[in-house]
Amino acid sequence: MAAQAISVDPDRARLAVAGFVEHHADNSESMTINDVVAPTFDVNFIPHSRNILHFGISSSAYWLRLNFDWLEGEPCDHKVLEFGPPKIVDGIVRGGIELYVIDQAGDVRINYSLGWQGSEREM
């Protein structure tokens, strides 16, 4: 079952999405997108119940699932999904953000990688 749909109105300037997110903590940091989109994996996602996403300091990778319902708008309308910067702990930033667009058939249509993708980086 997918996350509750977020209606994206072209006339609305901002929309907080934290209350619509489902998440899964990958303690092994080894899961792939194919693991996460498998129909049998749905039960592992937990609905997020607060208006802000904050998982504290962790060595886990977090998978977030959002479901957007794009309402009618101009063909050139663009929306921005904004993430705050990662926290720096002991001068080290770990990880980055990978975004996937999944089509109706469950296939990865688009993949974006943001931030640092190595294991560790000194600041």
Summarize this structure briefly:
With 123 residues, this protein is mainly beta. The chain has one helix at residues 33-37, and strands spanning 5-8, 22-26, 46-47, 61-65, 67-70, 92-93, 96-102, 108-115, 121-122.
Description:
- The structure is a single chain.
- The strands form four sheets. The protein has a three-stranded antiparallel β-sheet, with no helix packed on it. A two-stranded parallel ribbon has the order 1-5.
- It is 4% helix and 32% strand.
- It is mostly beta strands.
- It has one domain.
- The radius of gyration is 16 Å and the shape is globular.
- The longest helix has 5 residues.
- A hairpin with a 5-residue loop joins strand 7 and strand 8.
- The protein contains one helix and nine strands.
Strand content: 25-35%
Radius of gyration: 16 Å
Placed side by side, the strands forming the largest sheet appear as 3-2-4
**Please, what is the oligomeric state?**
single chain
Number of helices: 1
> What are the low-pLDDT stretches, counting only 5+ consecutive residues below 50?
none
Head-to-tail CA distance between termini: 40 Å
The geometry reads as globular
- Overall structural class, as computed from helix and strand content, comes to mainly beta
> What are the secondary-structure elements, in order, as H or E?
EEHEEEEEEE
The overall number of domains is: 1
Number of strands: 9
Helix-residue proportion: under 10%
